[in-house]
Amino acid sequence: MLSRIPVRVLASNPDEYQAIADVLTSGQSGALVLAADDERPLVALICPSTIDIDSLPPMVPALVLGPAKSDAATHIRFMNVPATLHDVFMTLEGMAQDAIDPAVPRHHNGWVLEVGRQILKAPAGQPVTLTDTETRLLAILFDAAGHEMDRDSLLQRVWGYRPGLDTHTLETHIYRLRQKIETNPTIPTFLMTTGAGYRLA
User: Fold this and answer.
1) pLDDT the model gives residue 179
2) What is the mean pLDDT of the chain?
């Protein structure tokens, strides 16, 4: 299962866009998040106020809120409106999951994470065997593609903890991971600490 699904929202109506964006940035939409401007989305949502899909990267799966068109590409799906936000988000998540082969390794700056085998390979070095929790934690950071993941989001997605919980679970796992994967764990060059959480260099 994908732990982070960047979504591009296309809407000509600013209020329509903002309503969807607010939910995607609130942390209440599970793995779905609003894609950053410079980030390739895994899926797109085309709101009723626009039918412009030309600005999407090629072959990005897209859900169009509106009547179906018989000549649409196979990676474009349609949903009649009105529709509940729950149904829209469930469909978006399913489309993103269908488009990603879970057997395909994740890559970031020469590092390779094989989720199924629970192995991390450095650009130069021996493969490191990970625990299940370490694999899930790194998968989220790999999916974030160098963007910061805040502490509460990581605790919620990896362990299911509520936001604001006072625990050192995350810090302990980060410490152990650095002992495994960093050449000098006290001066990390890959698993970086940020102001609010962590990211990959």
Assistant:
1) 96
2) 84
d(CA 91, CA 77): 9
Measured between alpha carbons, how far is 96 from 61 in angstroms, rounded to an integer? 7
Integer Rg of the chain from CA: 18
Whole-angstrom Cα distance, residue 34 to residue 144? 12
Question: So what's the pLDDT on residue 51?
Answer: 62
Q: Tell me the two tokens of residue 22.
A: 């607010």
pLDDT, residue 177, reads 96
What's the rounded Cα separation, in Å, for the pair 43 and 96?
Answer: 6
Beta bridge partners of 149: 198
Structural domains of the chain, ranges and CATH numbers in brackets: 5-99 (3.40.50.2300), 106-200 (1.10.10.10)
State whether residue 1 is helix, strand or coil.
Answer: coil
| 41-45-46-47 Cα dihedral, nearest 10 degrees | -140
Half-sphere exposure (Cβ direction) of 69: Cα atoms closer than 13 Å: 11
Stretch 80-103: mean pLDDT: 80
What is the rounded average pLDDT of the residues 51-61?
A: 66
Give the closest residue to 91 by CA, choosing from 30, 13, 49.
Answer: 30
Instruction: Compute φ and ψ for 136, nearest 5 degrees.
Output: -65, -40
Cis check for the bond before 82: say yes or no (omega within 30 of 0). Answer: yes
